[in-house]
Amino acid sequence: MGFRMTATDHSVYEELVAPYAIYALGAEEEAMMEEHLALCDICASEVASFHEALAEVAPTTETSGMDALWGRIEREISPPDDSADAAKVVAFEQRRRGSIWLRPSSAVAAIALVISFISTAAAINMNSSKQSLMKSNSAMESQMVANAIASPGSKTLHLTSASNKYSLDIVITKDGKAYITGGVLPPLNGQTSYQVWGIRANGMVSIMVFGSHMKGVAFSLPSNAGFAQIAVTQEPMGGSPAPTSTPIVSSVY
Amino acid sequence: MARITPLPKTNKEVAQLSILDDNELVQEVIKRDQGALAEVYRRTGAILVATAAKVTKSQQLAEEVVQEVIVKLWNEPEKFDASRGSLKAFLLVQTHRRAIDLVRSEVARTKRQERVASFKENESTRFEDMVVDQVQMRSILIALANLTEAERMAIELAYFHGYTYTEVAKILREPDGTIKSRIRTGLRKIKETLEREKSRDGVQDDSH
Asked: Which chain B residues are Cβ-neighbours of A58 within 8 angstroms?
């Protein structure tokens, strides 16, 4: 039988403040703690201070690949009959901090990877159920892709593996907005993501991270970025600051 | 039909939003300014996604969680109270809780017990693993360096793996009280170290 806390037994609540702050209480203690917090400014203040500290040490990640998520958020908050405007969505512009986008150590890896572009594991086309799921979620994205392809000055990149087993197609508009239009990549294993890299003489730059749902994924690829090649690798979930595997597909940019 | 409020399209408009504090920014969200919500996302999105991804071990689930949290802010912006903390902390708490709810809901009770029993130490994730911002990295490393391995382990198992403190106690074969104490001491160390760092940085800034 669980113990019952009384309002006067403040030390019991004090012990639960920290586990509460990180959501580590069982349901009963959680409910009792919330009742207590509504009445106790001292404990509420300590919970808030723990939350602030956790926010300070929270992990962060490369900001590339966030455009597509913003696109989905934007569509969700837009009125339903606003769909005609969806194709005009302005790609989300990231604030990039130079130090995390280009590391000297990446240059060596980049050169090695460029030289050693090789084909990798067995090809497995995305199955039809995944494709249908992608289609259901990407009506707007398809429209955006269609508009991009039709826009004056756009160009298409066809990234391939050495054996042509894998491929990825990207359309890039004149103003640097890029969309994945399709492709065949080896399946992700649940612990990995695809990561797009721009390769230039002095290093490799992470452009964005994406998952199995690739068609319509939007990102920025400005023509003045100075990339000689574009490549895609498979990296740990969420992406990696530097490539950890050889490219699956690549193309001269 | 036109949008309720068009996204800011000029650098000037973006710059104007970027200088707003949390409360001012949320006031703009209350006015249904999508550009303000985009600014919220710019400030917090990478942290929210990274945290949710570490908890759910899935980029896709993490993005779904963050989408839900940001849309919730759009629908209920008045729930943010600037007097109770920063917007980043507010959104992070919601993201973390939603991510843990997902993890817990996907694991049936019996499987959850099996998960506790079969936990391996190398499953542990560390706060600093995905941190790539070098400025942020410095203060985080200083804060985390003050934790004992036992404190770090207790916090990380609960925070990133979604275990309750009683489950953490079972995993680490320690009494419940010991784990509660480690979590509390660890969080206090992080908080106090960050406060000292901020204070030190403030003194340095003032001296320039």
From this structure: 47, 50-51, 88, 92, 127
Query: Given 1.10.10.10, 6.10.140.1670, 1.10.443.10, 1.10.3210.10, which CATH number is that of B116-208?
Result: 1.10.10.10
- Report CB contact under 8 Å: B59, A66: no
Q: How far apart are CA A176 and CA A180, in angstroms?
A: 13
Tell me the pLDDT band of B199, cut-offs 50, 70 and 90: confident
How confident is the model over B113-144, as pLDDT tens digits? 666 666 655 454 555 444 444 445 556 666 77
Q: Which CATH architecture best describes the domain B1-108?
A: Orthogonal Bundle (1.10)
Residue of B nearest to A44 (CA): B84
**A240 vs chain B: nearest CA distance in angstroms?**
8
DSSP string, chain B: ---SSPPP-SHHHHHHHHT--HHHHHHHHHTT-HHHHHHHHHHHHHHHHHHHHHHHS-HHHHHHHHHHHHHHHHH-GGG--GGG--HHHHHHHHHHHHHHHHHHHHS-HHHHHHHHHT--GGG---GGGG---HHHHHHHHHHHHTS-HHHHHHHHHHHHH---HHHHHHHHT--HHHHHHHHHHHHHHHHHHHHHHHHHHHHHHHH-
How much is the ipTM here? 0.82
Q: Do domains B1-108 and B116-208 have the same CATH topology?
A: no
Domain residue spans of chain B: 1-108, 116-208
* pTM of structure: 0.57
Residues of chain A numbered 52-71 and touching chain B (CB < 8 Å):
52-63, 66, 69-70
B191 pLDDT exceeds 80?
yes
Among the partner-chain residues A15, A52, A63, the one whose CB lies closest to the CB of B86 is A52
Judged by CB atoms closer than 8 Å, whether chains meet at B71 and A76 is answered as yes
Residues of chain A with Cβ-Cβ distance to B60 below 8 Å are: 211-213
Decide if B96 and A59 are in contact by the 8 Å CB cutoff. no
Tens-place pLDDT, residues A143-158 = 677 777 777 778 888 8
Closest Cβ–Cβ partner in B62, B127, B158 for A57: B127
